[in-house]
């Protein structure tokens, strides 16, 4: 028996949970498989993968939905709902929400990068926020989406991601926290592999040869 009858839902709203839950499960499985293939699978890294999967599912559920399959057609050419003027009629609550929502992303991305830096983390944050705005446009165009693509959202998302990464760097300066954070890092196989000691035979010959050349006995034999 359907939970929502056509009479109660004339616009054909797509339910959120049946979409975002499988999305999160699939993403978690992909991330765990990636770690396992590179022999990096540990419990702390699995927790990071779970956090990323839950975060991504939540972002999709709250930024792309609601989606209406039977949205009424106005009969006019489609005009994308885009706000291109930054912070025009933009409420403070919306700005704070968009900043706070992206703070976790600024802390998760450096955990998944081998050598995180501002030049490597910020493009991921910008690309994620831009992808959300484009998804909202696509939902408007094809499914009667209920969100407006807003450049103010993009700016606040990037600010929130930058704030999260700044907090990550500050926490990493605390020795005790730094050791804990290192357990959750997704270092590459090159960094995780043990470094073999270099052979010492050739340097020892070089040192002995230099010592022989500088020894007093050898110097006297040359002078005589």
The helicity comes to 55-70%
**What proportion strand?**
under 5%
Given helix and strand content, the structural type is mainly alpha
Shape: globular
Radius of gyration: 28 Å
| Total count of helical runs of at least 4 residues | 9
Reported for the largest beta sheet, the result is: 2 strands, parallel
Q: How many β-strand stretches?
A: 2
What's the overall average pLDDT, rounded? 82
Major sheet: arrangement of strands: 1-2
| Ends apart, CA distance between termini | 110 Å
SSE order, as H and E? Answer: HHEHHEHHHHH
Low-confidence stretches: 1-6, 188-198, 218-224
3D structure, described in words:
With 224 residues, this protein is mainly α. 66% of the residues lie in helices and 2% in strands. It has a two-stranded parallel ribbon. Helix 1 runs antiparallel to helix 2 (43-63), helix 3 (92-112) crosses helix 5 (151-172) and helix 4 (118-143) runs antiparallel to helix 5. The longest helix has 26 residues, at 118-143. The protein is globular and about 60 Å long. The model is unreliable at 1-6, 188-198 and 218-224 (pLDDT under 50).
Record keyword descriptors for this entry:
2% strand, disordered N terminus, two-stranded parallel ribbon, mainly alpha
Structural topology:
Elements lengths: L16 H21 L5 H21 L18 E2 L8 H21 L5 H26 L5 E2 H22 L2 H10 L4 H4 L8 H14 L1 H8 L1
Parallel strand pairs: 1-2
Helix pairs in contact: 1-2, 2-3, 3-4, 3-5, 4-5
Entry summary:
The chain is built from nine helices and two strands, in the order ααβααβααααα. It has 224 residues and is mostly helical. Strands 1-2 form a two-stranded parallel ribbon.
């Amino acid at each position: 028996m359907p939970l929502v009858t056509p009479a109660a839902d004339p616009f054909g709203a797509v339910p959120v949970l049946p979409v975002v839950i499988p999305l999160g499960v699939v993403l978690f499985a992909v991330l765990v498989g990636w770690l396992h293939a590179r022999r990096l699978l540990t419990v702390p890294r699995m927790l990071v993968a779970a956090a990323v999967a839950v975060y991504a599912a939540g972002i999709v559920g709250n930024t792309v939905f609601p989606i209406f399959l039977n949205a009424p057609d106005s009969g006019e050419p489609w005009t994308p709902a885009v706000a291109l003027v930054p912070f025009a009629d933009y409420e403070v609550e919306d700005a704070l929400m968009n900043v706070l929502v992206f703070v976790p992303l600024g802390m998760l991305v450096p955990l998944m990068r081998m050598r995180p830096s501002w030049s490597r983390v910020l493009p991921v944050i910008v690309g994620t926020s831009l992808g959300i705005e484009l998804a909202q446009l696509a939902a408007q165009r094809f499914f009667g989406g209920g969100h407006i693509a807003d450049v103010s959202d993009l700016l606040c998302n990037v600010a929130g991601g930058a704030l999260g990464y700044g907090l990550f760097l500050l926490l990493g300066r605390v020795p005790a926290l730094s050791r804990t954070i290192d357990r959750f890092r997704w270092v590459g196989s090159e960094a995780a592999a043990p470094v073999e000691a270099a052979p010492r035979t050739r340097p020892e010959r070089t040192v002995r040869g230099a010592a022989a050349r500088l020894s007093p006995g050898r110097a006297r034999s040359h002078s005589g």
